[in-house]
Design a protein that fits this description.
Elements lengths: L3 E4 L9 H16 L3 E6 L9 H14 L5 E4 L4 H13 L3 E4 L3 H13 L15 H9 L5 E4 L4 E2 L2 E5 L3 E6 L3 E6 L7 E3 L8 H10 L4 E5 L3 H13 L6 E5 L2 E3 L14 H6 L4 H10 L12 H7 L10 E3 L1 H13 L3 H10 L5 H8 L9 H9 L11 H9 L10 H13 L4 H12 L7 H8 L1 H8 L2
Parallel strand pairs: 1-2, 2-3, 11-12, 13-14
Antiparallel strand pairs: 4-5, 5-10, 6-7, 8-9
Length: about 450
């Protein structure tokens, strides 16, 4: 069987790390199977959907390493959804309801007060022609509900337990009782579609074989399977993973911008740090940085995904980024270093990378090399620094220069250890930490060093 999956975000905002999880799960699953990955924009809400957000989603996915095999837009496919709705109406499975939102809420509250489940009572199926005429005269427009197959044959009001089962790729055997659910609204009163029907029509026509998404859709799956079958369509396999939250346990939202992919990128995090944490957190696998998506795919085991929510902490992605940067070869960093105006080449990167929490930190160390920097000289070290200036070795400089200089100063002044090395580091770099000066000093050069010591 050829595997085809889809990631279907709404272009109504920036995707965040929570969206990243299903995007990556689908990508890793499809590529491991040699399958097809479809980016399908759920842009039926044309008032809120924008091309800017669509472009941003594609850019963010590209940064993560995801390159869709196909791109589809639901806004191009309204005729398919209209045809499906007409088919369901002709079968008597999509029926008009005229209740307002306030009326529905009052009914739900009344049911709760009586100790009953707040399930829609299918009042729309009881309307007389006179009632419908009255509603129309009042200017009411109907919304349309799908009649679930949860009743006795021929009597939609004789509700009976109706179980829908599926073998979930992640959660194992799942069961939903359709009798516990309200008939879902598929078409709003203004004629626009909710997510459900367009998604099912597209999954069927695009031959989606596996739907991998968040666990908040588990209950919806029973309903969707019923609609697939009502339309005579093949039902895909489903997998529902746990959800990501913020470190404090809050849900993620495009509206708040919490942990958006764009913000993580702008903060200097490495894409594979973000991917590794988004995929491996909340699983049985240790959270460690994968070198690439192919390696990450080998780490992913759907059966090892926890049933509990997984917390995403930016501090963790920072730690993973640092681990990646510390091992990053020069060729992987070269383009970004050059874009920052860093001309030190491979020698410079090899010296500073272990002192960088992100690639952009290399700019700070390049400033230390090229200057200008403000030397830091304590009053009690002033005489020592003057002596160090007098004894500064002649060029050419190499990795033996630092050792020769400090050895001579130790013999001349009697200083040793931290009392010898720290005043020199602060005077030459302006900092009390950093790369090994044995390697860094030749890059700084004698004239730069002399200028700093003489300040």
């Amino acid at each position: 069987m050829s595997v085809t999956v889809r990631f279907a975000p709404s272009p109504t905002g920036h995707i965040h790390i929570g969206n990243c999880r299903p995007a990556l799960f689908n990508w890793l699953f499809a590529k491991a199977q040699g399958g097809t990955y479809i980016l399908r924009y759920d842009d039926t809400d044309q008032e809120r959907s924008t091309q800017e957000f669509a472009d941003g989603i594609l850019r963010d996915l590209g940064w993560l390493g995801i390159q869709p095999d196909r791109i589809e837009r639901q806004s191009d496919r309204f005729d398919r959804y209209d045809a499906a709705a007409d088919e369901l109406k002709a079968k008597g499975l999509l029926y008009a309801c005229y209740e307002s939102a306030d009326e529905l809420e009052r009914r739900r509250n009344r049911a709760r007060a009586l100790g009953k489940a707040p399930i829609y009572d299918r009042a729309g199926l009881r309307y007389t022609p006179e009632q419908i005429e009255k509603f129309e005269a009042e200017g009411r427009k109907p919304h349309w509900r799908f009649k679930l197959p949860n009743h006795e044959e021929g009597d939609p009001f004789a509700i009976k337990r109706t179980e829908v089962h599926w073998d979930d790729l992640i959660r194992g055997t799942q069961t939903v009782d359709l009798a516990s659910l309200s008939d879902p609204v598929l078409v709003r009163a203004d004629g626009t579609y909710l997510y459900t029907l367009p998604s099912i029509v597209d999954d069927a026509e695009m031959e989606i074989t596996h739907v991998i998404r968040g666990e908040d859709h588990v209950a919806n799956t029973g309903v969707q399977i019923a609609i697939f079958e009502a339309l005579g369509c093949k039902v895909p396999e489903f997998g529902h993973h746990n959800l990501l939250t913020t470190a404090s346990g809050e849900g993620l939202s495009k509206r708040t911008g919490a942990l958006s992919i764009a913000s993580l990128r702008d903060a200097g995090y490495e894409p594979m740090a973000v991917c590794s944490l988004a995929v491996l957190t909340g699983t049985s696998h240790a959270v460690e940085p994968a070198a690439n998506l192919e390696e990450l795919a080998k780490m992913l085991d759907f059966k090892g995904i926890s049933k509990s929510a997984a917390k995403f902490d930016p501090e963790d992605v920072g730690n993973l980024t640092a681990r990646i940067v510390h091992e990053m070869p020069f060729e992987a960093a070269k383009e970004r270093l050059e874009a920052m105006g860093i001309e030190g080449g491979e020698a410079f990167w090899a010296i500073v990378r272990e002192n960088c929490a992100s690639v952009r930190d290399a700019a700070c160390w390049w400033e230390v090399v090229k200057g200008p920097i403000t030397a830091v000289v304590a009053e009690e070290d002033a005489d020592f620094i003057r002596k160090a200036t007098e004894m500064l070795p002649a060029e050419p400089w190499d990795e033996t220069t630092w050792g020769a200089w400090t050895k001579a100063l130790k013999e001349e002044t009697g200083r040793k250890g931290k009392g010898l090395f720290m005043p020199l580091r602060k005077a030459v770099t302006g900092l009390d930490h950093g790369p090994d000066l044995k390697a860094l000093l030749p890059l700084i050069g004698r004239q730069n060093t002399l200028d700093r010591l003489g300040e």
